[in-house]
Model the fold of this input.
Amino acid sequence: MVKGLYTAYTGMLDEQRRLEVIANNLANVNTTGYKNEGLAPQSFDEQLAIKIKDTSEFGHMPKTIGSIVYGVKLGETYTDWSQGAIQVTDKSSDLALMGSGFFAIEFTNKAGNTSVKYTRDGAFTVDADGYLRTVDGDYLLNMQGALNTQYGDGNRVRIDPNMTYAISRDGNITQDGQIVGQVGFVDVGLPDNAPEGVDAYDYINKYGENLVEFIDGSKIIPAEAAIQQGCLEASNVNVVDQMTDMITIQRAYEAGQKVIHAEDEAMDKSVNDVGRV
Done:
């Protein structure tokens, strides 16, 4: 086994995975509320090197000759939850969250199963019946439904579609001087038995392109965010940083190729020249 081949090979695989994540970030640079993703590197576990078919030790156990570390590997994918830029649209149904929190959505998948999901994408529309819905047709929940993880007609945001409306920073919807509902937006909290050093956002899983779900055991708490009507939160992907990382990945990948080529030449000389001598 030639260690250099394994080090270069695994390094090239890691760079390929990093490139896939960056490509996904760039594909979603114009996706409302999208959060940038990255990959955290970590060391490979040490592998014990042994003599193959060694019977010199007592009990015919192969004798160890050291340890091998292949280099680095990519660990878990992480998400950058920082605030994206706020874009003014002046459309009444467009909502942006300033600060941490998520809109609660009554999500129905292709199989017809309904559950509560969460999103930072506030590009809503008002249908003919007055319900606020996402671009995919899912209903925006009110505060009661968001805090209690309940969906259905009584937990949806509904207004009079024939009247103008205003939405305050705390989500209250006003029509004709009367509060007619409240937009549901919440945040995730740590469970009571959470270990030290764990962040509440570690209890979030991404779902699809622009939705998230809270992991079982986490708490649903009121969000500290404020709603900005007539605005949308843009993706927090920095295109310049992503392009710079792509160039770095390309150079690292090429370095791995050169290592494999050098190892191949060394083995060729060992087999054909040294062996001849």
